Amino acid sequence: MSVITEPKTVIGKAANYVDERLTIGSVLKNFGRKVFPDHWSFMLGEVAMYSFVILIISGTFLTFYFQPSMAEVHYEGSYAPLKGMEMSIAYASSLDISFDIRGGLLMRQVHHWAALLFVAAAGLHMLRVFFTGAFRKPRELNWVVGFLLFLMGMAAGFTGYSLPDDLLSGNGLRIIDGMIKGIPLIGPAVSSGFFGGEFPGTEVVARLYSLHIMIIPALIIALLGIHLLMVVVHKHTHYPGPGRRDDNVVGYPLMPVYVAKAGGFFFLVFGVIAAIAATFTINPIWNYGPYDPSPVSAGTQPDWYIGWLDGALRLAPSNLDLVIAGFVIPMGVMLPIIVSLVFLVLVGAYPFIEAWVTGDRREHHVLDRPRNAPTRTAIGAAGVTFYAVLWAGASTDLIAVNFQMSLNHVLTAMQILLILGPVVAYWVTKRACLSLQRKDREIALHGRETGRVIRLPHGEYIEVHEPVDKYELWKLVDFKDYEPIMPRPNKKGKITVGTKLRSAISKIYFEDRIAPVSKAEYELAHADHGHAAVEEKPKRKPKQLKKNL
Amino acid sequence: MSDLEKYSSGSATSIERPIKDPGLEPHRVRMTDKSEKHARTAEKQVAGLFVISIIGAIIAVWGFFAFPIIDGDLSATRNNALWMGIGMALSMLGIGFGAVHWAKTLMPDNEVAEARHAARSDDDTRAKAIEIVKLADGESGFSRRKLIRRTLYGALAFFPIPAVVIFGDLGPVVGDTLKHTMWRSGTRLTKDPTGIPIKASEVTIGSVFHVIPEGLKDLEEHKLEEKAKAAVLLVRVNPGELKEDPEKAGWSYDGIVAYSKICTHVGCPVALYEQHTHHLLCPCHQSTFDLADHCKVIFGPAARPLPQLPITVDDEGYLVAQSDFLEPVGPSFWDMRK
């Protein structure tokens, strides 16, 4: 048995001390050179995560001064226009953070900008995952976790937005109260439980505060932990390309390249948020005044990520209230709630729907180029359009005022767009994807158009096509391709309703498809005399040489 | 065949590719790899960025002390936030750009491939896992001892119930608070927020008053709750332009009408009045009510007209309520008609 050698240097001794207690040696051995694929779109999730860290840092600063109480005080701080005014302690302490504490305004603005960025980056990250098919097996559950994170982001944002108890956020809470009250049977009781009695009451800010600084962040941290753990377990996806397969992962090692890049990126995100917060005012609560149920300013709008829900409220058709046995179901509230819930459920469940349609049980680690999944991309575009119209719907009044249009016409146009927009977006996107796939096929089979027209000995004019190199060719031809499913009888000889439905949806997905270039097609194209005569060897190695110079 | 391909591919096609996977593209050599001079330059750039970061931190600290808070002077607040923010931004961006530049120019940029394995545990591992579960089941008697198992399920189902019930006092039982406001027969209409009573003679044609019930201003408790229900908009129009509903005849006084200011959609204050059309507009979701026609909804998501407050004048000429609203104000709720 060999004797354990003691390290000599200070660092060596320290490392030895920790390793003998925490096994960091094997952690480093296993994870130190873990490979991460590189692509700008993989940064979107990072932006969201770093924004969250910044939210915790700036939020902790704010908790040292903010007082979540709705007791009334007379303002005595240094913002002259509001001096002597009656307001809640929550609003007064928010003003104090802004005007009487050095760095307070900056931290409030950092916090608010970081929140806006957090939800935005998480949303874009979701879109990236959706359009590249990164949610496929084995990552379906991580899609659900990410989806929950997005919802939690919205909840964190809304609860925080309501804390200063200013006129704008108070009206936001009033709207929430109105929506809750409209829910059949339980509405008024839930509202009473939430506000601790009648709206606005004296409890709600303190309750939102508990949610905002404890419960929701704890959930986000837990979900984020699971989210990242799953990334480690599955290893990151990579974009399609030569050498990138479902059974490998191509990229840079964690140490040192990724530590430097991702670590540096945290500072970049923080730096950009600090710069924006230093130079652009956000949520100037001192302009709104304390909450009062009677006044309201024109052009009220929530933070951007709540916009789509506010838009849903605005676009609901009027006079649809149902009265059943004397009980009222206010559809002006229920319809937006139902529509947005259905939309969210479809988003959360999408990976399972697609897996059911394709029947593909394999693991997928190579991403799809969006064009190579035309129907998914089209569905995504339709969903984005639906969301965008709802979101724009929260600005109908501002659009009408700024473009000098009739408010009524703007709203009617939005209502029509909400129905027609997604249909048009679906159709246009699907056709665009199919056309791009056709172009890819064309390039794979016949090469690029060089723009050089030559005359052949027998007088024919043709344009010279230059074949793409093998790396580019591989990218154009290597993608997953599906066919529609025929409804087949089961063991009992019956075609079930589920089978029929699945085959019908599969037809919608894959009836129009452009198959990848096959070996036979490729060889046929290249055996063709007319072409072979004019195809030239590339004079230079295209692309990569050029970039090196 | 790799372990990832043992699964059904569903309706995926298997078209043979024209060429075999050519493998990773050849590595592109950077200038900093080729020439020590370029590497030196990059090194200096990185160091320069880190120095900028230090300067930024110093600017931030300077900003904190250079602009102390001065009561009533907002420029101090603004400069404080501006310079601390810019300093902090510089110190962060210096580190960020420095680290990324370092990684991109001086650290190796060879892409490497690593193998992936299917998430599924291999069959041996699975067999062992199942064995462990069975062993644990056997040792504990979980499957065998039905009585224990079923009572455990029962206990687990019951134990969270107190945790739900304990929240029962989050808010009081609703009762009929939503159906009543502060208005009583004879309550004077007063101006919001001053609380000064309004004489009918003050209200000229076309003018609008934001109204609260007399006494609301001096409430010690529940002032905002009462205001959130009792706020009223008072308008005088030419009596000839008002459509009179025989049921509500006498609810107005000489063309002066009072309507609840709380939108029947989700409760925003309906604060915008357009004089020449007699339309009331809610700025939150644009529900529009026709004041001349009993505040019927003419546009937007609201469904019910704004409730009318029956008013008259007292012997001194002040406007007073005849009674409370005769229907609930604000957002609709399921049992509002009961």
Q: Can you tell me about this structure?
A:
The complex is a heterodimer of chains A (549) and B (338). Chain A is mainly alpha-helical and 549 residues long. Chain A folds into 2 domains: 271 residues, Cytochrome Bc1 Complex, Chain C, CATH 1.20.810; 119 residues, no CATH class. Chain A contains 21 helices and 8 strands. Chain A has a two-stranded antiparallel ribbon with strand order 1-4. A two-stranded antiparallel ribbon of chain A has the order 2-3. Chain A is globular, with a radius of gyration of 29 Å. In chain A, 42% of the residues are buried. The C terminus of chain A is likely disordered. By secondary structure, chain B is of the alpha+beta class. Chain B has 3 domains: 75 residues, no CATH class; 45 residues, no CATH class; 142 residues, Rieske [2Fe-2S] iron-sulphur domain (Rieske Iron-sulfur Protein, 3-layer Sandwich), CATH 2.102.10. In chain B, strands 2-3-4-5-10 form a 5-stranded antiparallel sheet. In chain B, a hairpin with a 5-residue loop joins strand 8 and strand 9. In chain B, helix 2 runs antiparallel to helix 3. The longest helix of chain B has 32 residues. The radius of gyration of chain B is 37 Å and the shape is extended. The model of chain B has no long low-confidence stretch (mean pLDDT 92). The interface between A and B is large, with 144 and 120 residues.
Write the layout of secondary structure elements.
The complex is a heterodimer of chains A (549) and B (338).
Chain A: H1 10-22, H2 24-31, E1 35-36, H3 43-63, E2 72-74, E3 86-88, H4 89-99, H5 104-131, H6 140-162, H7 167-182, H8 187-195, H9 204-234, E4 248-253, H10 254-279, H11 285-288, H12 307-315, E5 322-324, E6 327-329, H13 331-358, H14 374-393, H15 396-402, H16 407-446, E7 448-455, E8 461-466, H17 470-477, H18 497-510, H19 519-527, H20 529-534, H21 544-548
Antiparallel strand pairs in A: 1-4, 2-3, 5-6, 7-8
Chain B: H1 31-34, H2 36-66, H3 74-105, E1 112-115, H4 123-140, H5 146-158, H6 161-165, E2 189-191, E3 208-213, H7 223-230, E4 232-236, E5 256-260, E6 272-274, E7 279-281, E8 288-290, E9 296-299, E10 308-309, E11 311-313, E12 319-321
Antiparallel strand pairs in B: 2-3, 3-4, 4-5, 5-10, 6-7, 7-8, 8-9, 11-12
